[in-house]
Design brief:
Layout lengths: L6 H4 L2 E4 L5 E3 L12 E3 L8 E3 L6 E5 L4
Length: 65
């Protein structure tokens, strides 16, 4: 998956390492009408991943736990 750095990456939801595994939609986030899926953000080199259902962008903060 290629995620381009643009305005969306500036609006990304920050995710801590302690929040992994990452799933969308998040429990404390909007209840969207798509199935719960797991997003392998820890495998992305740039730490960015986009949900294929709702296009929410998540960014992994590797400095925080």
């Amino acid at each position: 998956m290629v995620t381009k750095k643009n305005k969306k990456s500036d609006e990304a939801i920050m995710v801590k390492i302690s929040d992994l595994p990452l799933s969308c939609p998040r429990d404390n986030y909007l209840k969207l009408s798509h199935p719960k899926i797991f997003l392998p953000i820890e495998k992305e080199q740039d730490g960015l991943i986009q949900c294929p259902y709702c296009s929410t962008v998540y960014k992994l903060d590797k400095n925080q736990e």
